[in-house]
Design brief:
By secondary structure, the protein is α+β, with helices and mostly antiparallel strands. The protein contains twelve helices and twelve strands. Helix content is 54%, strand content 22%. Strand 1 and strand 2 form a beta hairpin. It is elongated, with a radius of gyration of 37 Å. It starts with a helix and ends with a strand.
Length: 419
């Protein structure tokens, strides 16, 4: 505070000091007259000249530093304004100080009305961004509490009505333990997300196509039964309640199988909710059991975490485990055993899928999960890539252990949801 006052009143201090020096020195010379007064006058002038020279030197030096700082600031401003990302600077109280050109164009901020206002105050001026701005307050507070940079995905409805997804990084600034600012950088990843969704949909349809062989085999059995009883009724020219019940039962069975496939294959919006691990595993077993039977693979389940609660998109996690179990079945062309084991440890659900297949060589194991790398003749090589992405979105982990000739173990963990 004292430094700021000193800087602002420097000219006044210099004027008063000069006036005091001239007056005081003249007063001293008058009180103590001497034959050397001429030398005193010269000395007084030299002192004043030296002092003024030093002061002018410091002013010029400060001015040069100021000019350099301004040039650097202009270069930084040019760089920030050229960025195709949202860049926003806030002070320690969460008030907007400055945004770059991209953010102004995105939000239609044609004036500086946003300056020195919090997100909640700006929401009153721009109600169309209210939901996004309120969410900003929560995320900013979380970032300051954590004390390190955070990263989130946020959906924003821009004035044109288009929904955009941004990958937002927040960097908190502190000085002597006090909040001094927050830098927010948001990159538009809408096209990337759309490409990921398209790739996931294609991979899902590819998996559905491969599952179709097992489903067709399973459907053929009830159809054969229905056909036989219909022919029997036709030959005998009679209908009994028992035969009709059998036919209806078999038709219901066909309908259930087809319905399960449709739920799995059709595009669905993301729905986040709580569900039990047992529900997830049971549904995945239903979908893959047909193919397991077709390839003579025994599926065993040790579900010790059936009652544990997960939170997320159940359909996405079904896709993950169908991919994993299908890979397990494909690794056992001559039949074998797949064991699915679940447990809870340290507030995390651990799900293991263990097979007795051919195993994966070490050099190939390192590449598994990379886009477009696959061990199969068919497929796009995106199954485990997208599965890994889904698991990460659910704050999970994904690991594969394998030995050639002994089999493969896939270990997937998720945080337990507490009520």
């Amino acid at each position: 505070m004292f430094k700021e006052i000193f800087k602002k009143r420097l000219w006044l201090i210099y004027f008063l000091a000069s006036l005091f020096w001239i007056t005081f020195s003249e007063y001293v010379i008058d009180i103590f007259p001497s034959v050397n007064n001429k030398y005193f006058q010269i000395g007084k002038g030299l002192v004043f000249v030296i002092f003024t020279t030093v002061l002018i030197h410091l002013i010029i030096k400060k001015h040069d530093a100021y000019i350099k700082a301004m040039e650097e600031q202009n270069e930084l401003s040019t760089l920030i304004n050229a960025m195709p990302d949202i860049v926003c600077f806030k002070d320690g109280a969460g008030r907007w100080i400055r945004v770059n050109r991209y953010a102004k164009e995105l939000y239609n901020l044609h004036t500086d009305i946003y300056k020195n206002k919090t997100d909640l105050e700006i929401a009153k001026v721009y109600p169309e961004f209210e939901e996004y701005l309120i969410r900003n307050v929560q995320l900013d507070e979380e970032t300051w509490e954590i004390g390190t940079k955070t990263r989130n995905e946020q959906n924003i409805m821009i004035p044109s009505g288009e929904q955009k997804t941004f990958d937002v990084i927040r960097v908190p600034l502190f000085e002597e333990g006090e909040r001094t600012g927050l830098v927010t950088i948001g990159r538009d990843v809408s096209n990337v997300k759309a490409a990921e969704e398209l790739a996931l949909r294609r991979e899902k349809l590819s998996v559905v196509g491969e599952l179709a062989a097992g489903i067709a085999h399973e459907i053929r059995n009830p159809l054969t039964t229905v056909k036989g009883f219909v022919q029997f009724q036709k030959e005998k020219s009679e209908s009994t309640s028992q035969i009709s019940d059998i036919i209806l039962s078999e038709l219901d069975r066909i309908n259930q199988i087809v319905s399960e496939m449709l739920v799995f294959s059709k595009p669905q919006s993301k729905i986040l909710k709580e569900f039990k691990v047992g529900e997830l595993i049971d549904y995945v077993i239903k979908l893959t059991s047909h193919e397991a039977i077709l390839y003579n693979v025994e599926v065993m389940v040790e579900n010790h975490a059936a009652e544990a609660i997960l939170y997320g998109d159940k359909n996405e996690l079904i896709q993950v485990f169908v991919n994993v179990i299908k890979n397990s079945i494909d690794a056992m062309p001559n039949g074998g055993q797949t064991r699915i084991r679940t447990d809870v440890a340290d507030d995390r659900v651990i799900i293991e899928v263990i097979d007795t297949g051919v195993g994966i060589p070490k050099e190939r194991l390192e590449k598994i999960g990379e886009p477009f790398f696959t061990l199969k003749e068919k497929g796009m090589g995106l199954g485990l890539t997208m599965s890994n992405k889904i698991i990460q979105d659910h704050q999970g982990t994904f690991n594969i252990m394998s030995k050639v000739g002994l089999g493969t173990k896939v270990i997937i963990t998720f945080p337990v949801r507490h009520h």
